[in-house]
């Protein structure tokens, strides 16, 4: 069956040629292997392929601190010995080494995720894929766990320019701590509460990296109940994982009503991964992608971890097929990297005969705790009502705050010199809002529209021309 959805796929051949070092498990070459496998199945004929722009330092600084971005820009392998203090401060070293073309690598994978978000925002595609992205551990001021720039946070911030609520889902075996942290306490400059919800499924315990992601971590202050963690033990299999995933994600979507989804598909949750400890088959992993796709919301899909290279390429190729509604024959067609898939040259890998340490009662306890936390969102003033509240607070007083409203409605109008919203600009905001609502891009209630109309009058009588 041919997909009716429009799929945009981002890839730059340069991203696969960087090298983290001989003993480092992260092998960007897996991205080349994935791309060639995708081509060998002719999947490029069913989607639009783009080479992403290299994200500018100013774009990276929308989340990261300027001094960190500047340091990443200027540090070189041959000069790093003179910057020991900075290397320690920015957590560069064994997990996150300085290598040749590091900054360009960051610019490419981040450019892919930002471009993907922009195409979704402009409704130029339904699904956007960037297998080079998904580096979920990077923090505002430091690298962490093989991740330097957090392309996911930047992609979400981009989506928030057009979407009221963005749901982030992470199936990498590691906790998506960097994305969670960015939205954990406050609104991260998003002008209202709860515009991002993060959900991570991961191994937790036994000092497994990064050590965070307990079910009790639920967000704090403004962010309380908007972080969901699903801590799991070794050996989880397809049946337990997909059942839990579907139960939790369907409830999250029902209650939170996101208008866009970002799905991080780290392939280190597959059986036999060099760093992972789960027991998922490619079909089990891909089942999660298929499930999320069925909600028919704008979807940004990224890669992430994955350290058994040939399985990473297999997994992300199958998932590209899933997003295109295309089932792929198990026999891998001729391609440049065919020998990596020896001896059987098949696409699917089976799960293994290893123990599943996640008992039924353990999984049930986790599920109940997550569901209980979700009830707080349901029983809080509804997300739509919070939108009303935000609009009221933004519109109420200073002219500087009118700028915030403009950003919320009309991202292209962001201007550092803008202090007041003109009558024309405000009309434009209102019409954009109405268009978005009519296209179903915002779940705006009648109350919101009434509020806007009233605020329109108030702003008029406030002397805004
Ligand atoms: F085994 C190694 C060899 C060389 C360099 C690093 C590693 C290694 C393996 N596992 N490093 C790790 C993890 N780091 C630690 C450190 C010990 N320190 C106290 C911390 O355990 C990091 C694992 C990172 C996983 C990254 C990811 O898969 O989640 C990912 N997602 O998107 C991109 C990467
Ligand atoms: Ca995860």
UniProtKB/TrEMBL annotation:
<feature type="binding site">
    <location>
        <position position="174"/>
    </location>
    <ligand>
        <name>a divalent metal cation</name>
    </ligand>
</feature>
<dbReference type="InterPro" id="IPR003084">
    <property type="entry name" value="HDAC_I/II"/>
</dbReference>
<feature type="binding site">
    <location>
        <position position="172"/>
    </location>
    <ligand>
        <name>a divalent metal cation</name>
    </ligand>
</feature>
<feature type="binding site">
    <location>
        <position position="307"/>
    </location>
    <ligand>
        <name>substrate</name>
    </ligand>
</feature>
<dbReference type="GO" id="GO:0046872">
    <property type="term" value="F:metal ion binding"/>
</dbReference>
<dbReference type="InterPro" id="IPR023696">
    <property type="entry name" value="Ureohydrolase_dom_sf"/>
</dbReference>
<feature type="binding site">
    <location>
        <position position="95"/>
    </location>
    <ligand>
        <name>substrate</name>
    </ligand>
</feature>
<feature type="domain" description="Histone deacetylase">
    <location>
        <begin position="24"/>
        <end position="321"/>
    </location>
</feature>
<dbReference type="InterPro" id="IPR023801">
    <property type="entry name" value="His_deacetylse_dom"/>
</dbReference>
<dbReference type="Pfam" id="PF00850">
    <property type="entry name" value="Hist_deacetyl"/>
</dbReference>
<feature type="active site" description="Proton acceptor">
    <location>
        <position position="137"/>
    </location>
</feature>
<dbReference type="GO" id="GO:0040029">
    <property type="term" value="P:epigenetic regulation of gene expression"/>
</dbReference>
<feature type="binding site">
    <location>
        <position position="145"/>
    </location>
    <ligand>
        <name>substrate</name>
    </ligand>
</feature>
<dbReference type="GO" id="GO:0005634">
    <property type="term" value="C:nucleus"/>
</dbReference>
<keyword id="KW-0479">Metal-binding</keyword>
<keyword id="KW-0804">Transcription</keyword>
<keyword id="KW-0156">Chromatin regulator</keyword>
<keyword id="KW-0539">Nucleus</keyword>
<comment type="similarity">
    <text>Belongs to the histone deacetylase family. HD Type 1 subfamily.</text>
</comment>
<dbReference type="InterPro" id="IPR037138">
    <property type="entry name" value="His_deacetylse_dom_sf"/>
</dbReference>
<keyword id="KW-0805">Transcription regulation</keyword>
<keyword id="KW-0678">Repressor</keyword>
<protein>
    <recommendedName>
        <fullName>Histone deacetylase</fullName>
        <ecNumber>3.5.1.98</ecNumber>
    </recommendedName>
</protein>
<feature type="binding site">
    <location>
        <position position="268"/>
    </location>
    <ligand>
        <name>a divalent metal cation</name>
    </ligand>
</feature>
<dbReference type="InterPro" id="IPR000286">
    <property type="entry name" value="HDACs"/>
</dbReference>
<dbReference type="GO" id="GO:0141221">
    <property type="term" value="F:histone deacetylase activity, hydrolytic mechanism"/>
</dbReference>
<keyword id="KW-0378">Hydrolase</keyword>
């Amino acid at each position: 069956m041919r997909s009716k959805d429009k799929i945009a796929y981002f890839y730059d051949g340069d991203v696969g040629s960087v090298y983290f070092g001989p003993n480092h498990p992260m092998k960007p070459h897996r991205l080349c292997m994935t791309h060639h496998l995708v081509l060998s199945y002719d999947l490029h004929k069913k989607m639009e392929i783009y080479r992403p722009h290299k994200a500018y330092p100013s774009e990276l600084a929308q989340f990261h601190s300027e001094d960190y971005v500047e340091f990443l820009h200027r540090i070189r392998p041959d000069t790093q010995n003179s910057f020991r203090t900075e290397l320690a401060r920015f957590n560069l070293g064994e997990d996150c080494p300085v290598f040749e073309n590091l900054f360009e690598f960051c610019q490419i994978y981040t450019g892919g995720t930002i471009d993907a978000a922009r195409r979704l925002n402009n409704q130029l595609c339904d699904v956007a894929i960037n297998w080079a992205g998904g580096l979920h551990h990077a923090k505002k001021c430091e690298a962490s766990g093989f991740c330097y720039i957090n392309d996911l946070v930047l992609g979400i911030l981009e989506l928030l320019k057009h979407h009221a609520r963005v749901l982030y889902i992470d199936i990498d075996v590691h906790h998506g701590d960097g994305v969670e942290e960015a939205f954990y306490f406050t609104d991260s400059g998003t002008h209202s509460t709860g515009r991002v919800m993060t959900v991570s499924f991961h191994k937790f315990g036994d000092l497994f990296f990064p050590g965070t992601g307990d079910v009790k971590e639920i967000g704090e202050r403004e962010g309380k109940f908007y972080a969901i963690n699903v801590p799991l033990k070794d050996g989880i299999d397809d049946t337990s994982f997909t059942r839990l995933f579907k139960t939790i994600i369907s409830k999250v979507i029902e209650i939170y009503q996101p208008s866009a989804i970002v799905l991080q598909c780290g392939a280190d949750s597959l059986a036999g991964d060099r760093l992972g400890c789960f027991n998922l088959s490619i079909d089990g992993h891909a089942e999660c992608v298929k499930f999320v796709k069925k909600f028919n919301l704008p979807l940004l899909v990224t890669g992430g971890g994955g350290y058994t290279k040939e399985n990473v390429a297999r997994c992300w190729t199958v998932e590209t097929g899933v997003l295109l509604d295309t089932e792929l024959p198990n026999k891998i067609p001729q391609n440049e990297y065919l020998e990596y898939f020896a001896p059987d040259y098949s696409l699917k890998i089976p799960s293994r005969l290893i123990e599943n340490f996640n008992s039924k009662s353990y999984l049930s306890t986790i599920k109940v705790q997550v569901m209980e936390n979700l009830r707080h969102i349901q029983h809080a003033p509804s997300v739509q009502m919070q939108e009303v509240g935000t609009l009221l607070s933004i519109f109420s007083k200073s002219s500087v705050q009118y700028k915030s409203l403009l950003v919320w409605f009309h991202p292209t109008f962001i201007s550092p010199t803008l202090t007041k919203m003109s009558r024309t600009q405000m009309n434009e905001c209102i019409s954009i809002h109405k268009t978005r609502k009519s296209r179903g891009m915002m779940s705006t209630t009648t109350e919101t529209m009434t509020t806007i109309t009233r605020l329109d009058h108030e702003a008029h009588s406030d002397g805004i021309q």
